[in-house]
Amino acid sequence: MGFLGWHAVRDPEEPRTMAEYRIESTRDGFRRWTARNDRGAEVRIAAADDDAAQPSFTPVELLLAAMAGCGGLVVDRTARTVDHDDLRIVVESVSGPDDDGRLGRIRVSYELDLPAEDARAVETFARGVRLTHERYCTVSRTVEHGAAVEAVLPDGTTAFQGG
């Protein structure tokens, strides 16, 4: 099966289709990596405190960016009748000692000036955002509900399985 990438918001009446995702990361140096997809896009990954590796994303920043990107792509479909060309999506999280090495609460803010006098646009946009997170944003739904994770060693044995 070939790489399908992000799929459009589907009609709930249509049967579900399978989506396949694949990212390859290669080591460029100590705590420096490059992730690539099958379409040739690249992103640099490094520690935030490595000045020589900047500009780059940390893995957590990439997760938050994926939530923003997925939310934006889906809102383009779910709220397409509302002008949202100036939409800005900000994703934030603060982790504390009680979060046990995981992100704390994640806040996704959709920043857009909607005309207050146009109640239909406000309602349509709010519905689009709600549907984005309730049904269609694969990243947000996976973070919210969790996913099974399996780490496979070079010899094919499983080193870790959880979720």
Reconstruct the topology from this structure:
Elements: E1 23-29, E2 32-37, E3 42-46, H1 59-78, E4 88-93, E5 106-111, H2 119-136, H3 138-145, E6 149-152, E7 158-162
Helix pairs in contact: 1-2
Task: Give a verbal description of the structure.
The protein has two domains: 25-57, no CATH class; 59-147, 2-Layer Sandwich (GMP Synthetase, Chain A, domain 3). Helix 1 (59-78) packs across helix 2. It is α+β, with helices and mostly antiparallel strands and 163 residues long. 28% of the residues lie in helices and 24% in strands.
The gist of it:
The protein has two domains: 33 residues, no CATH class; 89 residues, K homology (KH) domain (GMP Synthetase, Chain A, domain 3).
Helix content estimate: 25-40%
End-to-end gap: 25 Å
CATH architecture of the largest domain: 2-Layer Sandwich
Structural class: alpha+beta
CATH superfamily of the largest domain: K homology (KH) domain
Q: Taking all residues together, what is the mean pLDDT? A: 90
Name the shape in a single word.
globular
% residues in beta strands: 15-25%
Strand order of the largest sheet: 1-2-3
Radius of gyration: 18 Å
Count every helix, treating DSSP H or I runs of 4 or more residues as helices. 3
